[in-house]
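Reader question, answered in our methods column.
A reader sent in the components of a multi-part assembly and asked whether the whole thing could be modeled at once rather than chain by chain. We filled in our standard form and ran it. Here is what they sent:
COMPLEX SIZE: two components
ENTRIES:
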Amino acid sequence: MEGTMRTAPASHKNVGDNERRVSLLGGAASVLWGLSRGGLPGLALAGLGTALIYRGASGYCPMYARMGHSSADASDRGLLGRGRAAEPVHLHSAITIDKDPRQLFDFWRDFSRLPQIMQHLLEVRPLEGGRSHWVAQLPMGRRLEWDAEITEEIPGERIAWRSLPGADVDSEGEVRFRAGPQGRGTEVEVDLRYRPPGGAAGMAARFVGGLSETLLREDLRRFKRVMEAGEVPTAALVH
Amino acid sequence: MRAVCWHGKQDVRVDHVPDPEVINPRDAVVQVRAAAICGSDLHLYDGYVPTMKSGDVLGHEFIGEVMEVGSEVKHIRPGDRVAVPFPIACGGCFFCRRELWSLCDNSNPNAGMAEKMWGHSPSGIYGYSHLVGGYAGGQAEFVRVPFADVGPVKLPDAISDEQGVMLTDVFPTGYQAAEYCDIQPGDTVAVWGCGPVGQMAIASAKMLGAERVIAIDDVPERLDMAVRRSGAEPLRPSEVGNTLRMVEALRDMTAGRGPDACIDAVGMEAHGVGLENWYDRVKQSMSMETERPTALRQAIMACRKGGVVSIPGVYGGFADKIPLGALMNKALTVKTGQTHVHRYLKPLIERIESGEIDPGFVFTHQIGLDEVPDAYRMFRDKQDGCIKVMVRPQERRLH
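And here is the structure of the entire assembly that came back:
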């Protein structure tokens, strides 16, 4: 299984939150020290400090950009603890399951069984005309709900879906099934995209902020176990 | 029920815990008739295995009577006396279908944790830390057995409880280690460690046709057992000296060739000699190295060119000063892994029934649950001639 966390390309930030804080502090210290020292070296130091402050405040480093480097990642929430959560989150993961593509496709296509494997889902109820109603579980018994429609379906190969207007959280997803190399079952690849409406605040943002590729990977592992072993293992002694 | 629980380094107690139930359709609940303390349990006891939690039920070697089965379990039924392999295996994944049972993809609930440590997760194992599932173990009155339609095998009446317990881990583990040596007529096999797994590796190597087996250990009664039971030639590290001397001694014993195969039945807590021993002890105590791999170093250095190094000894993390140059330039083959017990149960039951071998010979002590905490210390310190302890959980101490 492999996966990397990706954020939308819309962001030009390439400095992570912690590094931004360090830049701000270091920049401020350089400016103060430079100005108190005076003279040409002091002025140069103050200038450098100003650049660092800009880098910390904006989250953009021209040198990193030229080097093609970035220390930012999807866990960054901005210096004031918001910002990124409002941006769409893209989760990707893949797993190999020792079953035919068709069997796996059939399980997935019956969306009502997805909550068995996807922990954040409480219920998916099929509706008329390829539509379905999704309910996501939040802490404290709160819920997010949306309707979705299938946008593409190739039996045994691919299912894509997306939420309809009016959703608590805009989402789209795609699952692909591909026969693995000889005797290696089926490679299952999933892409999920979530975009919370109404900016950074609110339940939807917190919901999306709480998603991660680690969780998606565990969901796919549950899928594999339900399909291969018929049950999900537990070390519990009692119900 | 009463169960032996881990509470910390060298702190093992008998606690009351909930009676296990059938949770999944492929489960069984087994009443333990006999269990054993394994040398690898001592790594837990000494605190060298991460992800143990206070209250974890220990024990991965046990046989018992089936009490209850889930709806999907057909081949065993209540009342059957069964041996339960220590690795838990689903039977349906890529690995199980290739008889690589201890690598099952679907039996470790904490696979994500194991992937962080080892890249990929092996199967779940009873009573052996949360890295391999956090399953409650068999040093208890009852055990919940997942995938009971795959693992447990009904024991014929001719197999004693002692032999049955040996079939759940130690006998197959020693046997697999010897099988991995690909023994050819005339071969000499050297075995580091004459604990129960070492004894089984030595006996199996002879059974598989080894001309000579050299048994390496410093505990007199263990060496005696290897000599007496399996006709091994003894070698005492304390008399030989450090790794270089050990290599020379083994070279001398084989007229310069070196043993054709070397088995490390010691693992992560080897007792080295001299500077090398102190190097590992200091690094291990400072968490700069998780293993003390003296036996493995010697096995690699001593092995003849093109030979096999077989490692049934348990390792968990990272080791230093492994002689990779020797491994590479002598073109050695390394074979290792947790044992695919399921693969060996039937053939080894047949070998016992035919009288070829009686693996029960390693047992030196039999106790009830209450005595288990003391027995851990006795076994670890090799007091009272202790080689292998059998636990009878249904018997309470009378005095």
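What stands out: Chain A touches chain B at residues 96, 98, 183-185, 214, 217-218, 221, 224-225, 228-239 (CB under 8 Å). The longest strand of chain A covers residues 143-154.
Send us your own complexes using the same form.
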